Protein: C2H2-type domain-containing protein
Amino acid sequence: MLNRHLKCHSEVKRHRCPYCGKGFNDTFDLKRHVRTHTGVRPYKCSLCDKAFTQRCSLESHLRKIHGVAQRYGYKERRAKLYVCEECGGTADSQDAHLAHLRQRHPHSPLLAKLARKAAAAPAPRPGPAPPRPAPPP
Structure:
């Protein structure tokens, strides 16, 4: 956590916004920033028509506007939401998210990145040979 914070003070910004050139040290921060350009608002209020770029903004809205407090246990993780940065669609699982990308956005940069990673990964090493059946008596 401290390392992540220290990176924000670094002069070297490894990730650049393709829209305005602003630099970020973290892909998470870049992704959040890019939504200000694309208009992707994946976190939708179930009680009204408002939508937000960040989950924390939705939770703040629910608490302040609708009086709905989220109940999370200490250090309890919320369910992960997979967001399509192309259209703002959401999925509850990585498999569903990838299926959406393949069907709707076959030229998505994320699919290209995953294909490059798969091509660069070493081939799995074969495990031990299965035991041979015993010869008949």
Notes: The first helix runs from residue 2 to 7. Residues 19 and 37 are 7 Å apart (CA to CA). The mean pLDDT is 85. Strands lie at 15-16, 23-24, 43-44, 51-52, 82-83, 90-91.
